[in-house]
Amino acid sequence: MKHLLSTHDLGREDAVRILDTAEQMAAVGTREIKKLPALRGRTVVNLFYEDSTRTRISFEAAAKRLSADVINFAAKGSSVSKGESLKDTAQTLEAIGADAVVLRHWASGAPARLAATDWINAAVVNAGDGTHEHPTQALLDAFTLRRHWSRVRGIESTGADLDGMRVVIVGDVLHSRVARSNLWLLRTLGAEVTLVAPPTLLPVGADAWPCAISFDLDETLRTGPDAVMMLRVQAERMNAAFFPSVAEYSRRWGFDDVRLAALDEQGFEHTAILHPGPMNRGFEISSGAADSKRALVLEQVANGVSVRMAVLYLLLSGDN
Ligand code: CP
């Protein structure tokens, strides 16, 4: 693996290798094992054209736990505002010593473009591109789901994959790179996926994707899925014409306290709630659901560091 650009192109063997490596990395950052020397002398550049809290900071923490040097670059406040191109920016960063470029960009395809050219030799990691993909988010979600699936089945092992797990992805699928990356990876790992969305927030062509589609969240929850992944409503990418009202959205597609209580009443103790963050509390998810014992949101964030360590290690250590 030279780059990590998408989960669509990630084979099962590579995906499982990343997840297994992440399991080994999970012990790093503790009092017992603060750091590993694996990437000493390597430089990771976080090149972010869009805002981020979780992804940027966890890539920084991941690189530091592997003893790499980290350079954080935000397009805001840089020479990008003077018109500098992605090519010139990336080449400038490589001249400063970048061995890996972790790129978040508003344009779908920007990381693939950077990786496909001979502009730079550095490894490219897609940290979210437009509405296309967010592969490390899907990997950390799969890592979290794999642990949850082990708990549900009462087995010690983290297991190799998600065969037979039933996962529901709910909300603004149209604008969600998280939904796309998760769908491809979950299918690769053997999970069954159902997308639940307002009709106006499903992309054209979604009916050809390898998943079930529903417009009725309550009906889907009554099947007792193993996990429900709520998506952030991406108001910043939204044309008002697409959008149901906030009240209608919350009532029909939000994970509210009524739906949370219904899971308890139906005895679905195994159903976990995930959200990639940042959450719009009171919109796609209630505080009651987000802070409930079913919610794995902070576990997802913590697992993100282990998964990103695994990705950087496998790309940069030469041990692959
Ligand atoms: N989930 C996610 O990508 O969050 P950030 O935008 O904060 O990185």
From TrEMBL:
L-aspartate binds at K82, R177, R232. Residues 2-146 form the Aspartate/ornithine carbamoyltransferase carbamoyl-P binding domain. Its EC number is 2.1.3.2. Residues 163-315 form the Aspartate/ornithine carbamoyltransferase Asp/Orn-binding domain. It comes from the Bacteria. Carbamoyl phosphate binds at R54, T55, R104, H134, Q137, G277, P278. Catalyzes the condensation of carbamoyl phosphate and aspartate to form carbamoyl aspartate and inorganic phosphate, the committed step in the de novo pyrimidine nucleotide biosynthesis pathway. Heterododecamer (2C3:3R2) of six catalytic PyrB chains organized as two trimers (C3), and six regulatory PyrI chains organized as three dimers (R2). This is Aspartate carbamoyltransferase. It comes from Zhihengliuella alba.
